[in-house]
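Q: Study each token:
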Amino acid sequence: MRITHLTLRNWRTFKNLDVEVGQRLVIIGPNASGKSNLLDSIRFLRDLATPGGGLQDAIRTRGGLSRVRCLFARNNNHGWVAITVAIGSDGGEPWTYSISVRSEPRGLHRAVVAEETVRHGDRVLLQRPDDKDRDDPERLTQTALDRSRRTRTSVTSRTSSPRPGTCTSSRRSSGTPPVPATPSTTRSAVTSSPG
């Protein structure tokens, strides 16, 4: 599986960009032509999917939505920042993830999901906003992955034992001071598999 297509709308210096990605991708150009912005769009998608990350963190680490949005965005794509990525292998039906982000119209002016879609081939597996989002607009401050991850985490934290390096109520109630987590006690192994 690899990225086969990338579409950007109002992403930093790109008003509209469609890139077919072959087996190899080489990005060249003069200084300030957008090479780093193109790569940052892929890092943005990674940040959306990283545990502990999510939409708000991905936007915040880039300086806010006003720093991510293209200066030409006002009259293009409703002013929304949009990224669409197709992932697949040669010959198979691609998976497509599309997210459009806009600013909250009132209140905190946070980044909110304007549209989010997951497709496999021609089948739509996820389409947001949905009825639940319209009933509770706060849900739009998170992607569907954020929501499912947080739901799983809250269920897991209620049903499983604490992780190493965390304090438990029984430890504190016994009079023993809490032991803070250290990098050596919380480090996890990262492995990769061929494929």
Summary: The first strand starts at residue 2 and ends at 11. Confidence is low (pLDDT under 50) at residues 161-195. DSSP finds seven helices and six strands in the chain. The first helix runs from residue 35 to 49.
